[in-house]
Automatic annotation (TrEMBL):
<dbReference type="InterPro" id="IPR000361">
    <property type="entry name" value="ATAP_core_dom"/>
</dbReference>
<dbReference type="GO" id="GO:0016226">
    <property type="term" value="P:iron-sulfur cluster assembly"/>
</dbReference>
<dbReference type="InterPro" id="IPR016092">
    <property type="entry name" value="ATAP"/>
</dbReference>
<protein>
    <submittedName>
        <fullName>Fe-S cluster assembly scaffold SufA</fullName>
    </submittedName>
</protein>
<dbReference type="InterPro" id="IPR011298">
    <property type="entry name" value="SufA_proteobacteria"/>
</dbReference>
<dbReference type="GO" id="GO:0051537">
    <property type="term" value="F:2 iron, 2 sulfur cluster binding"/>
</dbReference>
<dbReference type="InterPro" id="IPR017870">
    <property type="entry name" value="FeS_cluster_insertion_CS"/>
</dbReference>
<keyword id="KW-0408">Iron</keyword>
<dbReference type="InterPro" id="IPR050322">
    <property type="entry name" value="Fe-S_cluster_asmbl/transfer"/>
</dbReference>
<comment type="similarity">
    <text>Belongs to the HesB/IscA family.</text>
</comment>
<feature type="domain" description="Core">
    <location>
        <begin position="18"/>
        <end position="118"/>
    </location>
</feature>
<dbReference type="GO" id="GO:0005829">
    <property type="term" value="C:cytosol"/>
</dbReference>
<dbReference type="InterPro" id="IPR035903">
    <property type="entry name" value="HesB-like_dom_sf"/>
</dbReference>
<dbReference type="Pfam" id="PF01521">
    <property type="entry name" value="Fe-S_biosyn"/>
</dbReference>
Length: 122
């Protein structure tokens, strides 16, 4: 009988977290400065689209108990713990594309995206 052993590396299961670019941090700070009581932005995921998941953005006035907080230069990004398996390691950017300005997500876990870029699969 031949036994196969796999190696286990605990770092494979450690959260890497999310990062904000300076442009994303600046935009979040701008939003919070214009709305009293606003603490930051929440990034979550929902089942949607042809690829499986979509990003959900919202504002935060009261953190949820399971929120993880990622911060850069005073800008706070809140992420529900249950979203982490889908977006861990993501870089959040804020870009201008033509006349549009929007948050952009560079997600290393995304295996594919739909043609319109609205949803992703892991």
């Amino acid at each position: 009988m031949e036994l196969h052993s796999e190696t286990f590396d605990p770092t494979d299961f450690a959260w890497r977290g999310l990062t904000l670019t300076s442009a994303a941090a600046a935009h979040i700070r701008e939003l919070t400065s214009k709305q009293p009581g606003l603490l930051g932005v929440r990034l979550g995921v929902k089942t949607t689209g042809c690829a499986g998941f979509g990003y959900v953005l919202g504002t935060v006035t009261q953190p949820e108990k399971d929120d993880l907080v990622f911060e850069r230069d005073g800008a706070k990004l809140y992420v529900p713990l249950q979203a982490m398996p889908f977006i861990d390691g993501t870089e959040v950017d804020y870009v201008r594309e033509g006349l549009n300005q929007l948050f952009k997500f560079n997600n290393p876990k995304a295996q594919n995206e739909c043609g319109c870029g609205e949803s992703f699969g892991v």
